[in-house]
Amino acid sequence: MRAFWDPVQLAHAPQFFLQRGQVRLNLECPSRALALLDGLASLRIVPQRPATATAESLLVVHDATYLAFLQDAPAAWAALDDAGPELIPSIHPSPEMLAQGGMVGGTPDGLVGQIGWFTADLACPITAATWSAAVASAACAADETARAEYRQRAETESKSVAADDRHHA
């Protein structure tokens, strides 16, 4: 088993989580990642540091508008008067808004609308460290995907060479 890990991921440590109407500590915390690393260590699996994610690899999975939002929104949020430490939506597009033609062909222009558009709910706050941690996580996934594809190609090619009778000539 292989594992990939970048310590930059520890920087994403949101505090806010809303569950059944109560504010609680967020479960996406460094101690959770450290527990997973301890589990790997108990199995004698040493995580590898992934190659750096490229813009192209990020765009394979996510839209450029969403990526720009994740990268730029924390600074824009921090510039607001009386902003909290984490980006938390205060509005989400509703089915009625969408049914009446709201947001056809685009995303909201305003930051508060974008937060509601790009986040699933109140349980996924964005912090100043989210972008770098998300890119590091994407690098882990992309690195393993690339290695798996390489292994699959190598296995296929070795089988095709072995099946070729001309190698005896």
Q: What is the SS-derived class?
A: mainly alpha
Q: Percent helix among the residues?
A: 40-55%
Q: Rg to the nearest angstrom?
A: 21 Å
What's the mean pLDDT score? 83
Low-pLDDT sequence parts: 158-169
Proportion of beta-strand residues: under 5%
Number of helices: 6
Outline the structure in words.
With 169 residues, this protein is mostly helical. The protein has a domain at 51-168. Helices cover 48% and strands 5% of the residues. The chain has 6 helices and 2 strands. The chain has helices at 30-42, 55-61, 64-78, 95-99, 111-118, 130-162, and strands at 16-19, 22-25. The chain has a two-stranded antiparallel ribbon. The protein is globular, with a radius of gyration of 21 Å. Mean pLDDT is 83; it is low at 158-169.
